[in-house]
Amino acid sequence: MIQIYIPLNFLGVVYREIKQNLTDLDKMFTLMDREQEIADAPDAQPLELPRAPTVRFEDVHFAYEPARPILQGLSFEIPAGRTVAVVGPSGAGKSTLGRLLFRFYDVQAGRITVDGQDIRGVTQQSLRRAIGIVPQDTVLFNDTVAYNIAYGRPEATQAEVEQAARAAHIHDFIAAQPKGYETMVGERGLKLSGGEKQRVAIARTLLKNPPILIFDEATSALDSANERAIQAELRAVAQGKTTLVIAHRLSTVVDAHEILVMDAGRIVERGTHAALLAAGGRYAQMWALQRHGGAQPAS
Ligand code: ATP
C-alpha cells in the first residue's frame, strides 16, 4: 500500500507544480493515465477559429477553495490580434486568468468566450491547440533540444525547428553545443539559464503558431540586455495574435492595447499606458516606484 501511495502522491505534487506553470499537460495525462479534472462536455465541438479571435472574460468569478474567492466579477476583452496586459501586486490573481483561459479550471460564475464560443462548450484539445503559452518557468523534458522545441508541433521538420530557434535567438547557442540540436536538456542534461529556457519556450510557441498567446512573465529578473532582447522577441511573436500578458515589470506593458491593474481579484484601474499615467492613480504610482527602484522601464 505504502509503495503505491508514495509514487501516486509524488505524481500529484508534480502534476500540481506543472499545472501551476501552465504547461501543456496532454502528454503527461497520457503518461500518467490519469483522469483529467476538467472534462469535455458531451456535445463539445472543436473550437472554430478562422483567424486571431476576440477573447472575452464576462463577469468571471473564481475560487481555488470555496472559502477564498480569488476573482470577483472580472470583465475585459482582448480584441482580435491585440494585446491586453495585467499588472498588480503578487497574489492579485493575474496568473489565474491564464490558467482559466487555458481551462485548467472552470469559472464558477460568468464565462470566458473565444470569438463568442464559451470555452466550456468546445473540446479541450482544440482550445489548447489554439493557445500558446510562454510560462514563468518553462518545464523542459529530459530529451533533446530539438524535441523540446518541436513539442508544440511534433511533425515540424528540422529546418522549421531551426528557423524558430533563430527567430528566438537561441540557434547560435544550440549550434555551439557539440551535439547541436541533439543535445540532451532538462534535469539529466544540459542545464539552461532562465533566459535560455524562455527562448526555448518562445521557439516552441513560434513553431506552434497559435492564434492566442499567454505570456506569463518570469518574476526572476534577467539581466537588462537579455530582458530587452526577450521583450523584443515576445513583441515580434505577438504580432497579429490575441495576447494576454501577465506582467511583473511595467516595461513590458507600455504598448498594450489596454492595461488592467488588478488588486485582490478585481480590476481597480484600466486604460492605456498614457491614460493611466495621466490619471495619476495606482498605475502611475507603480510606474514611479519602479523608476525610482532603478528597474528602468522601456519608454
Ligand atoms: P504573482 O504576481 O505572485 O505571480 P498572481 O497575481 O499571478 O501573483 P495568482 O497566481 O493568480 O496571483 O494567485 C492568486 C491567489 O490564488 C494567490 O493568493 C494564490 O495563493 C492563490 N492560488 C494560486 N494557485 C492556487 C491553488 N492551486 N490552490 C489554492 N490557491 C491558489
From TrEMBL:
Record-annotated ABC transporter domain positions: 55-289
Transmembrane segments: 1-18
Location within or outside the cell: Cell membrane
Name used for this protein in its record: ATP-binding cassette subfamily B protein
